Amino acid sequence: MKAISEMQDNGSVPTSAPAPVADGYAIRRRHSELLRIATAGSVDDGKSTLIGRLLHDSKSIFEDQMEHVVQTSERRGDGYLNLALLTDGLRAEREQGITIDVAYRYFATPRRKFIIADTPGHEQYTRNMVTGASTADASIVLVDARKGVSEQTRRHMFIASLLRIPHLVVCVNKMDLVNYDEDVFYNILEEVTDFSSRLQVPDITFVPISALHGDNVVERSHNMQWFGAAPLLYHLEHVVIAQDRNLNDVRFPVQWVIRPMSDSHHDYRGYAGQVAGGVICPGTEVVALPGGQKTTVASIDTFDGELEAAFPTMSVALRLADQIDISRGDMLVEAEDQPTAARELEAHLCWMSEQPLTPRGKYTIKHTTRSARAIVEEIDHRVDINTLEHVKAEQLGLNEVGRVRLRCSSPLVVDPYSRNRTTGSFILIDESTNDTVAAGMVINATS
Amino acid sequence: MNPVHYELSHLQTLEAESIHIFREVAAQFERPVLLFSGGKDSIVLLRLAEKAFRPGKFPFPVMHVDTGHNFPEVIAFRDRIVSSLGERLIVASVQDSIDKGRVTEETGPRASRNRLQTTTLLDAIEEHGFDAAFGGARRDEERARAKERVFSFRDDFGQWDPKRQRPELWSLYNGSIRKGEHVRVFPISNWTELDVWQYIGSEGLEMPSIYFSHEREVFARDGMLYALNDFIELMDGEEPFTESVRYRTVGDMTCTGAVRSTAATLEDVVTEIAATRITERGETRADDRVTEAAMEDRKREGYF
Q: How large is the ipTM?
């Protein structure tokens, strides 16, 4: 616990002394990128300590937050500085010492701003993990060096793979408790690599760390000279994410039509939305789906003026060369590269409701800016998220993942999720409770 | 094609996400409203709404819950900015709620109208039939807010139930509600205080003067500096003095503390924020200090 008491000392510098590292950063580096990270883990694998370490070493824990942790740890009689209290925001969580939801944490270095979606790793919180993973660029999976690959490790890797998080970082933690032994690390690396070959993991990186003592978190460890690669934070700062977006297939779900009908903009009609794929330029020939009308992009408008190109994830408004009848829910795509306008979908579902999914269940399906009704025709199988085995299933319960076939009341313009995370994802909404009951990822689509 | 051209800065990414949320609300709801406090976060909301809907008008009015204890500079700023935008302003008054007997004024030196605002707000939402209300809350502000959704569902009593929040995936926002229920929407959930200031700087947004250092008569209470004003009674031993201060947050004069500062320009403020070691609510908001879960409790009741 020595490292943590040091943190406490560091955390209580007087207000008048500015933190040297944070000083002036952000002013110089206005063009830092944003990286979204998903983490999952349980109380004892050191996840909270790792997040505490990242926040602390990047000067993102404030004095009053640290003071709160100190006081609350003392009052609860934890006997140590409980960094989990930094992330456990709700009364019930603090009282019961559990994390029940997704907590978002923010920190920055000169190169990047980071958003951490922090979720509990237990099986009963799969839906939270899926939620945190849905927007993540990178995922941190923690493995306890003493215990090796556990059921939980495999589950986290499966979810990262299912949600197509492009970059996976496996942190072998508590290396201090195995004498910083190289063999321990490489045995785990081998075991994880073996397992990941059964998954869709495009990029996997391993780092041996001690979150408690800070080895290979921000600074290179002196205790593990045998490890030649970069520490965790360096990797998070440098991992290339710009190429993760789909810049090939033009996808523009129309979200809102700007029609001022004022004297100065009498005939203005701008199709507003967020680019979901491809690079759109004035002159790009597009087709509006599902209708099929063809036209050309006349201009890309923003409040700050017209642009020469729009790409993911920019929010813009397009003016079109021809007056065609399109509205919210339609998608503009390139003529020679069209997605499927589909009524029948095969998809993975993560079920998020206590009320199980049963075949013939009817729901509202929400996909990009379009909604329809959907009926679940068949559950192909359930995936055991610990073993990856396909299990025959009559229903899907809370936190279960399965492959299903859906039929929609009107066509949805979809891509496979593996090709585009925006146009390949959907949610199901229970029409009686209005709750979001499932996250869906398209595998195949047929019209 | 050089892929370098197709990169966005973190502020551009956050801005694009926020614009998407604004348009989603406009499309999914019948009667949204934008809650404006005159503070920096809601000033950023106004700019984001311009980015989402210009050259059209906002498809919603702007509403201010006026406690009657606001800083006069902020009220003047509010009227000026909303009228220069050419948008509609609704003022919901806590004084009216008191006069109608909906709420009872607190008394004593620590009296505040902070909590009374909730009733005024919920009454206004019901009276106008609003089904979605934009707010400027951010997840980095406070522990309970770190767990709140972008679309935060409220039942027909205006209450927030943190344990029954809808999962929120990708950029698919579920705005399904029944009559009488509403959704609070936080387009800048993922922004930090520093992001907000950087954005104000890069957009050149006009701000109320109290955000910049100025000489003010203040007194010290509970480790904070309060403006000497008509709405707070001094307690024994509290002596006013003049100090160079600025505000980090804008709330009521009764519960918002000033910080000692000589940051007179936007650049000074950004430098100061980048170096600060205390959160804005911890440093300047008495309303969050009442109990450990003060914000969570007020949010459950329907607070902003």
A: 0.90
